[in-house]
Write a structure and sequence with these properties.
The protein is an alpha+beta fold. The chain has three domains: 74 residues, no CATH class; 174 residues; 95 residues, no CATH class. Helices cover 45% and strands 21% of the residues. The protein has 13 helices and twelve strands. It has an eight-stranded mixed β-sheet, sandwiched between helices. A four-stranded mixed β-sheet has the order 5-6-4-7, sandwiched between helices. A hairpin with a 2-residue loop joins strand 2 and strand 3.
Length: 372
């Protein structure tokens, strides 16, 4: 990747996967993003690494939309109290994961009409929350936390990355794949050799090719001459539930989320209404979202109910399916909504309402996190 934004913008403008109006919107957002992540920053992290580079190198449409949306969000929040401190954390590769989650929550609250303060001091002590949101005279404190990957999830990510990069970014093909298990490096190298051979074949035949092994890997490679909707249909017919997924990395998500709750509630004031927001983008949903959330709420709700200053416990995760459904699940003890920010960027939001809280639930906050 080149170490300046203009070369990236030029590359993006040459793609045939975006319409002219989409290119204009993306270019505007990227230019705003550049005000924070300038060329000097980009030149440095090209050598040292930063999570944002994965977004930049991904030529899939949704990644371009995501970057442009990030630029617009940062610009709209620039005048918020202490926002410059959050910007510095966004630029730091080690702090980016937590900072990008805070940015998302802050943006939701900002759009909901709240006045935002970052790192507000609690009382007269040294303790600080992440965010204070005020609407008229009602103030609520927030702790925003990100569930970082486990060792198993890091191994899963390595398998995913090595089998997807740079093939996903090849201008001549589109790739759809499902990885069913974490693989060793020799096994990955073996599949990479087959994938590279198949790509060369598809470039000549203008068709598509399948690489795989039962219960290990399903990999479809399409010529760019095949329309993307037709490629998706072929992937669906091959039982692929998403364009790229896996491998699973079994972890005890509930125990990890519970540990986050008990850790983070200590940062919140006991005598002020508070909300806990957890970002957990690597949750293993299995085949049924509703069953997954029934189970996770059953296990976690008592940890929320024990905190009488907490009004809402919110868990936000990324979602992806080829049907791109938007739907809600509303039950006595929780509310769930799956929505798409863009047609290919999905988000699932679970809210556990604490009916035992000594504070009234603020419906404006609920709406800010669930609004379509």
């Amino acid at each position: 990747m080149d170490d300046n934004w203009q070369s990236y913008i030029n590359f993006m403008m040459e793609t045939d996967s975006l319409t002219d109006s989409e290119k204009e919107k993306v270019q505007t957002g990227i230019k705003l993003l550049r005000k924070t992540f300038d060329d000097a920053w980009l030149s440095e992290v090209v050598m040292t690494g930063h999570p944002l580079l994965y977004r930049m190198s991904n030529t899939i449409n949704w990644s371009q939309y995501w970057l442009a949306d990030l630029g617009n969000r940062i610009e709209s929040l620039r005048n918020i109290h202490k926002f410059s401190e959050l910007e510095l954390r966004l630029k730091d590769p080690d702090q980016y994961g937590g900072a990008i989650s805070e940015l998302d929550s802050i943006y939701k609250l900002f759009k909901g009409g709240f006045e935002i303060k970052l790192s507000p001091r609690i009382g007269n002590g040294n303790k600080k929350a992440d965010v204070k949101a005020t609407l008229v005279n009602d103030e609520t404190f927030f702790e925003v936390s990100t569930l970082m990957p486990s060792a198993k999830q890091n191994a899963s990510w390595q398998t995913f990355r090595l089998l997807s990069h740079p093939y996903q970014f090849n201008r001549d093909v589109n790739t759809f794949f499902q990885i069913h298990k974490i693989l060793s490096k020799p096994r990955i190298n073996e599949f990479c050799t087959k994938i590279e051979k198949a790509i060369e074949e598809v470039k000549v035949t203008k068709g598509y090719c399948y690489i795989g092994e039962p219960n290990v890997l399903d990999y479809l490679i399409f010529s760019k001459d095949i329309p993307i909707d037709e490629a998706r249909k072929i992937a669906e017919n091959n039982n692929m539930k998403s364009e790229c997924s896996g491998p699973p990395a079994p972890v005890d998500d509930v125990r990890r989320l519970e540990a986050k709750i008990w850790d983070k509630v200590e940062q919140l004031p006991k005598e002020k209404p508070s909300v806990l927001v957890l970002y957990a983008n690597l949750l293993d949903f299995g085949d049924n979202y509703e069953i997954f959330y029934d189970d996770i709420v059953f296990e976690m709700e008592e940890s929320i109910y024990d905190q009488d200053n907490i009004t809402l416990g919110i868990i936000i995760s990324n979602t992806s399916d080829l049907e791109r459904k938007e739907y809600t699940i509303e039950k006595p003890n929780y509310f769930f909504i799956q929505k798409y920010i863009h047609k290919e960027i999905g988000e699932g939001t679970l809210i556990i309402k604490n009916r035992y809280s000594k504070f009234q639930i603020n419906n404006k906050i609920f709406n800010a996190f669930t609004k379509l």
